[in-house]
Write a structure and sequence with these properties.
Layout (H helix, E strand, L loop, with lengths): L10 H8 L6 H29 L6 E3 L13 E8 L2 E8 L2 E9 L3 H12 L1 H16 L3 E3 L17 H4 L3 E9 L8 H23 L5
Antiparallel strand pairs: 1-2, 2-3, 3-4, 4-6, 5-6
Helix pairs in contact: 1-2, 2-6, 4-6
């Protein structure tokens, strides 16, 4: 059974520091058990506590030690699925905790729905407004972006920058302060997720086809 989240132990940073860079196999194996206990298990406990507050956060996963992506030893990632290809996410490493939310605009049907919604006046203006609000709250808006506006849309479209997106992500570091070692981290994550929910709701409604 996973216990309540009490914070990441300060020793978690010691383990991640040992795994920094490109650690050899013997170092990775020696650190594996401590990393599971001090880094990954607290992330699981945190997300259980987050999910207890809202059923929308129930469907989560926490990356394992041998993820295919290089560098996962130094970074603990977690994903909360909101809708197909739409999620909230967390990352914990030597720089502290960070949060993101958004969606991958795939497959082709979702990309087409996204572009139609961005081009439409009401839904497109809504997305532009909520992204502006996220930037004002300190989020960076990023994602894979095409070099040119897609065919069929005017170069001078007022939301040409959004039409070029192949994925749309808002992200922000939450910090590396002492609260990371306390249950307060749960409240910090919940507050950040609440700020991102308008974006994930827009994507779920207009792109994933969930209303």
């Amino acid at each position: 059974m996973i216990g309540r989240f009490t914070g990441w132990p300060k020793e978690a940073y010691d383990v991640l520091l040992e795994l920094d860079g490109d650690p050899p196999v013997d170092v990775r194996e020696r650190c594996r058990k401590d990393r599971e206990q001090l880094v990954r298990q607290p992330m699981i406990a945190l997300l259980h506590d987050v999910a207890d507050t809202d059923p929308a956060y129930d469907d989560f996963s926490v990356a394992g030690y041998y993820s295919p992506a290089y560098g996962r030893w130094q970074h603990q990632y977690a994903t909360v699925r909101i809708a197909p290809f739409v999620d909230l996410g967390l990352g914990f490493d030597l720089d502290g905790l960070r949060v993101h939310g958004g969606g991958r605009l795939s497959p082709a049907a979702q990309m087409e729905r996204y572009r139609t919604a961005v081009a439409a006046e009401a839904s497109g203006a809504e997305l532009a407004d909520l992204l502006r609000s996220l930037r004002e709250k300190g989020f960076a808006v990023a994602g894979r972006v095409m070099k040119r506006i897609p065919r069929g849309y005017a170069v001078g479209h007022p939301r040409a920058d959004l039409l070029r997106h192949r994925s749309l992500i808002a992200k922000r570091p939450l910090g590396c302060e002492d609260w990371l070692h306390t249950p307060e981290a749960v409240d910090r994550v919940l507050a950040a997720f609440a700020e991102l929910r308008p974006l994930t709701s827009w994507l779920a409604n207009h792109v994933a086809g969930i209303r």
